[in-house]
Design goal:
The chain is α/β, with parallel strands linked by helices and about 425 residues long. It has helices spanning about 5-25, 25-40, 45-60, 70-80, 90-95, 100-105, 115-125, 140-150, 160-175, 200-205, 225-240, 280-285, 290-295, 300-305, 310, 325-335, 350-355, 365, 375-380, 385-414; strands spanning about 60-65, 85-90, 110, 180, 185, 190-195, 210-215, 220, 245-250, 255, 265, 270-280, 315-320, 320. It folds into two domains: about 40-280, 3-Layer(aba) Sandwich (Rossmann fold); about 300-414, no CATH class. The protein is built from 20 helices and 14 strands. Strands 1-12-7-4-2-3 form a six-stranded parallel β-sheet, sandwiched between helices.
């Protein structure tokens, strides 16, 4: 366990909690109810998915439903062609399929345009939160790594760090012709794509000549109103803010009706919008009775309030799959329960030990806007009965007490 990372993580999470306390209103309770109903309706709903695809296509967005992650990668490689520079914005789905690493192996320079993701990419380290990937690193540690990469002396000042990384990102955005981004929501009624961000980088990425958007089939919402409602809840739970700085809504390529009110398309970039909707075992999860996991909006609030994650940090994770929800999802998608053989590099014993860390305390459910019962899902994966439930409950709490004691001793020494 890296104590410095855990201490930095706690500091960052406390900032989120403070903003949440300041910005909380009773309206959020009603908004969460609306969100739960829309997620329950849409996840696994084939009819709404088809309606979304039809309306997106009518809006001149090129849509592809793709079953396997390798097919997404193959499609993108072909679409990129001879281009050697791609600018990319935050996308959990591209992390899921390890797109950046795969493209880099093929000699393509992929530049993350989110400040945190770019730092993560340069330092080649693990993420700690879906919307704050370097929350576990202090400004001093980040500056040290960036100084080596850029071959200049950088002080541990957040303003200076952001200024230098921003300059790097902008220079690459100016040179690139293709942008890749994720999406927070797809709306069925309008056939629209919604993205939320604070930095403004997505606006730059989607204005490239060709815009490739990669998201998953569980991101469907009935309409724009329900999607905006989700984004406001996402913002509050992810950062404590009432609303993000930017919400982009794409409803087709650019057009004008200034002359005789006739639509003329292709006024400004992008001239081509491609939307890839990935399944990657999501349909199977629904069939197996784990639809609840797919209702997650990726706000990361479960991590902010998880006692174990706040004690051991990224030890309670597998790559980009963070905390109890992430590990449960990884386990199910890779058939890593006690009755199956893992075909990946990470073995069953490793996954089992990660699952054992869940305290089943319910803090994640309590602080989840959708009240997802992750502890119950983990129980189903790791236990066969009450006796095993008790065993894992006791074991996880002993592990937690042990690391809490070590962490407190480090804090006292400091």
């Amino acid at each position: 366990m890296d104590y410095k990372e855990v201490i930095a993580l706690r500091k960052a999470f406390n900032s989120v909690k403070q903003r949440q306390h300041l910005n909380f209103t009773e309206d959020l309770l009603e908004m969460k109810q609306i969100l739960r109903k829309s997620r329950e309706l849409c996840v696994g709903n084939e009819e709404l998915l088809k309606k979304s695809v039809d309306n997106l296509t009518n809006n001149r967005i090129e849509v592809h439903l793709i079953k396997q992650k390798q097919d997404v990668i193959n499609f993108i490689v072909e679409e990129i062609g001879k281009e050697k520079l791609i600018v990319k914005s935050k996308s959990n789905v591209t992390k899921e399929i390890e797109l950046t690493k795969t493209l880099e192996k093929k000699g393509i320079n992929v530049v993350e345009t989110d400040i945190g993701d770019r730092i993560l990419q340069i330092l080649d380290t693990h993420p700690s939160h879906p919307t704050g990937p370097v929350a576990h690193l202090s400004a001093g540690d980040i500056a040290k790594g960036l100084s080596t990469y850029y071959n200049i002396s950088i002080k541990g000042d957040p303003d200076e760090i952001v200024k230098i990384v921003r300059s790097d990102i902008i220079s690459n955005i100016d040179k690139a012709k293709i942008g890749i981004t994720g999406a927070n929501a797809i709306t069925a009624d309008e056939g629209s794509i919604l993205m939320t961000h604070n930095e403004g980088n997505i606006q730059e990425v989607i204005r490239k000549d060709k815009c490739i958007i990669i998201t998953s089939i569980d991101k469907i919402y009935p309409n724009i109103e329900s999607a905006i409602n989700m984004i406001k809840i996402l913002s509050f739970n992810a950062t404590g803010s009432k609303i993000p700085s930017f919400i982009n809504i794409i409803n087709g390529i650019s057009k004008t009706a200034d002359v005789e009110k006739k639509f003329i398309t292709g006024i400004h970039n992008p001239s081509k919008i491609i939307l890839l909707l990935l399944d990657n075992k999501r349909s199977e999860l629904v069939e197996r009775g784990f639809k609840e996991l797919l209702q997650c909006i990726g706000c990361g609030n479960c991590l902010v309030y998880c006692p174990m994650y706040n004690t051991v940090g990224n030890q309670y994770a597998i790559d980009n799959y963070l905390g109890g929800k992430g590990i449960a999802y990884y386990s199910l998608c890779n058939n890593l329960d006690k009755n199956n053989v893992n075909n990946n590099d990470i073995n069953n014993d490793y996954i089992s030990k990660k699952l054992e860390l869940c305290l089943t305390c319910g803090k994640c459910k309590e602080n989840c806007p959708l009240e997802l019962d992750i502890p119950e899902i983990i129980k189903k994966i790791r236990s066969k009965g009450i006796s095993e439930d008790i065993y894992y409950f006791l074991k996880s709490h002993l592990i937690w007490v042990y690391y809490q004691t070590l962490l407190k001793s480090k804090l006292l020494i400091k």
